[in-house]
Every structure is written in C-alpha cells, then in structure tokens.
Design a protein that fits this description.
This protein is an alpha+beta fold. It has 2 domains: about 1-130, no CATH class; about 135-195. The chain is about 20% helix and about 25% strand. The protein has helices at about 120-125, 135-155, 175-190; strands at about 1-5, 15-20, 20-25, 35-40, 50-60, 65-75, 80-85, 110-115. Helix 2 (about 135-155) packs antiparallel against helix 3. The model has no long low-confidence stretch (mean pLDDT about 80).
Amino acid sequence: MFGCLVAGRLVQTDAVPVAQDKFVFHLSDCDQVNHVVVFMLGTVAFPAGTGGAVYFSFPEPVSGSPVWQLLGFLSNDKPSAIFKISGLKSGEGGAHPFGMMASASPSVAQVGVSVEPLEQLAQQTPVTSAAVSTVDSFLLFTQKMLDSLYNFASSFAVTQAQMTPNPTETFIPSSCILKWYENFQRRMAQNPNFWKN
C-alpha cells in the first residue's frame, strides 16, 4: 500500500504491518538521511474518510526507546509527501499510535504510517522542522545574496559628519542600495525569471 524513498537508495515497499492499520519502514544508516519521501503505491486506496498519519522515530541514544514525531499525512487526494528528517533526531516526541515498539538497532530509524480518520488528521500538528521548503532554491539563493550584499554594504556606512574628504573615493548613499534591494525583491516576487530578459 505504501512506499518509502531515501535519495541514493532503492525504493522500499516492504512496510512491516504492526497492526491492521499501522505500518513501519526501517531506515538503516539513518545518520546519512536528510529527507524521506513517503507515498501510496496506487494499488490500494485509503478507505473513505481516512488517510495516513506519517511518523518518524529515531531511538534515543541513552534509553534506546524510540521517540516518535509526527511529520504529516497522506490521503487519497495527497498520495505522496517529502519530509525533512535531518533535524529530528533529538527532541521530544509526541502522542503516537505505535506503542513501545523497540528499534532494531541504535542506527535504525523508523517511518510509521497509521491509518486514521481525516478529521483527526486535520487536527494534528506536525513538527515544523519536518516541512520541506517550497521555495525554489534559485529564489532562496537570490534572497540570501541580496541580504548579504545589503548587509556587507551597510557595514561600511558612515554619516556625512563622519566622512573625511577623499577625492579618489566614490560614495553611494545607502538609501540607493536599499531602493535597489527592495526593487529587485519586488521584481523577483512577480517573475523569478525577469533577469533573463
């Protein structure tokens, strides 16, 4: 019914049923995993009015007990999702339907899917750090570049009273750079490819 994919590895379709409505994937060498994709195989749909809550657990180093964290959910209308798990290895878990299942080893994480009513799924709050950014990497790079330029240029700012005359130096008002910065951001928001014209 479900598949699990980690970049650079084969697709896993061998979810272990731990109850009639609960399935678990085991992720070996989980220290090397940043993102995981969980998806429906398309062979079996969720029963009407239900979906699958997706959980992640990484055993605590001291106790060895798994700490489960809610990543999000799947449904017939949303049959796949990608989750960032690289920041979830520590921290507190929340309520989960998997009981006290033990992990196979300290380096094996688990991804669990629990079939639950859609109304219940809508009321649950996943850990915020599991959401994968929907911002295009080019837009993100451009934003960071603009921030860096503005911060760098601003670090040299002096008031007119602090300026010493230097006939070989050209000064640009910081308001000019700020105006360019705001204009560039506005244009990127309207059309990320405007610079190609």
